[in-house]
Specification:
Elements (H helix, E strand, L loop, with lengths): L2 H27 L3 H7 L5 H15 L2 E14 L12 E14 L9 H9 L4 E2 L9 H11 L3 E8 L4 E5 L2
Parallel strand pairs: 1-3
Antiparallel strand pairs: 1-2, 2-4, 4-5
Length: 167
């Protein structure tokens, strides 16, 4: 058996285990939305919402999301020979790409948690957070602090920007 075939066999075994685990969890969680509809079973609004969240999670176990945000901040680049060595500011634009499992509540992550991290930099002096607050280092700083982030794009105003991603 070659390496690819062996890998396919192993993946198949894990997929079967994952499916069995999903079925066991579904048994413990109560009826699905389809079961409620087809059997005519009445349910509370909370049960219906939970059933719909489970249905979404079953169809889309992993989801990719993005959060777009902007903030104002000042910085300077120590040791730089250009005009950016002096104190100046930007209107930053940020796009955070996230990926994760859909939770029981139907969300991957609360966008508020992501914005809380981004808001730490709003109207701040970025040199207080990192030594050389370039667009690259700002993107890296955010990536390290936002759970489930797979990539962060940072633009300094309408001009240049940077993208950092997990590999």
């Amino acid at each position: 058996m070659d390496d690819l075939t062996t890998l396919e066999v192993v993946i198949g075994r894990y997929e079967k285990k994952i499916q069995a685990a999903r079925e066991e969890i579904a048994k413990r969680q109560g009826p699905s939305l389809e079961e409620m509809i087809t059997t005519g079973r009445r349910s509370s609004p909370e049960e219906a919402v939970q059933a719909e969240c489970r249905a979404i999670a079953a169809r889309h176990p992993y989801m990719e999301l993005q959060v777009n945000h902007s903030f104002e901040a000042a910085h300077r680049l120590p040791g730089h020979t250009g005009k950016c060595k002096r104190l100046h500011g930007h209107s930053y634009r940020v796009r955070v790409m996230l990926k994760g499992l859909v939770r029981e509540d139907g969300m991957v992550i609360d966008f508020g948690h992501v914005k809380d991290v981004l808001d730490q930099l709003d109207h701040q002096y970025l040199n207080d957070f990192m030594y050389r607050p370039t667009a690259e280092n700002t993107a890296k700083w955010l990536l390290e602090r936002i759970p489930l982030a797979v990539a962060v794009h940072v633009w300094e105003g309408l001009g240049g920007g940077s993208v950092v991603a997990r590999v």
